[in-house]
Design brief:
Length: 225
């Protein structure tokens, strides 16, 4: 894996985001080497580079296949370890690629909400997660760490770039993969509860104000903040 290219891209994005937001982290610096899975909520299109920049270890992301167009951009994503995945059907090719990465001791970042979510449609608001992460963890028999990102949706409003809003990335304790006694649905429900606990702790520790909590892009544009 070409981690030199990965870190070059991460460094470039850190330089891009530094003037427009402040990153605060909880638990991201202490995580061990892989293999394990990072399961995070998905709040905005800015999440992957912000999450990558919050860690000292490289992360391999799963991203929807549509992002790999045009071809030159798809080549760039693949060169830094991003795995394309289809959202509307079981993607066995992506599953096999993800398992190979975990076999090599990588850390895999997934967004088990199935897309951008805020409010009642988000795991942070009580919504259910997709079961793909349970399948992946069970097949690979690796731990999953619940994580949250909060504040990245503020970057949809250009006026916010001037005041450099906070973006918080927090990671919780690992949970074991599903075993033969636990259903995938029951396991992802438990993962969702763990993610909400990480969110509650992040709100407390970072003293997040109401305007910093998750909103949809439409809500941000309408409010202008």
């Amino acid at each position: 894996m070409a981690d030199l290219g990965y870190w070059a891209v991460v460094k470039a994005f850190r330089g891009i985001f530094a003037p427009v937001c402040r990153i605060e982290v909880s638990g991201t610096r202490e995580v061990p080497a892989g293999p394990w899975i990072l399961a995070c909520n998905h709040l905005s299109h800015f999440d992957p580079p912000l999450i990558a920049g919050a860690f000292r270890r490289p992360l391999d992301f799963l991203a929807m296949r549509e992002l790999f167009q045009p071809a030159w951009f798809g080549f760039l994503l693949r060169s830094i370890g991003v795995i394309p995945v289809g959202r509307r059907q079981a993607d066995t090719t992506a599953l096999k690629a993800a398992l190979r990465r975990l076999e090599k001791g990588r850390i895999l970042c997934v967004f088990p909400e199935g897309g951008l979510r805020a409010g009642e449609t988000s795991v942070l608001g009580g919504a259910e997660l997709t079961e793909g992460v349970a399948l992946l963890a069970a097949r690979a028999q690796v731990a999953v760490r619940p994580a949250v990102i909060v504040g990245s949706d503020q970057l949809y409003v250009r006026q916010n770039w001037i005041r450099r809003p906070r973006v918080v990335v927090a990671v919780g304790e690992p949970i074991s993969p599903p075993d033969a006694k636990e259903s995938r649905a029951g396991w992802v429900k438990r993962l969702g509860e763990e993610m909400r606990q990480v969110y509650a702790e992040a709100r407390r520790r970072h003293r997040l104000a109401s305007h910093e909590l998750p909103h949809t892009p439409q809500e941000r544009w309408k409010a202008g903040r």
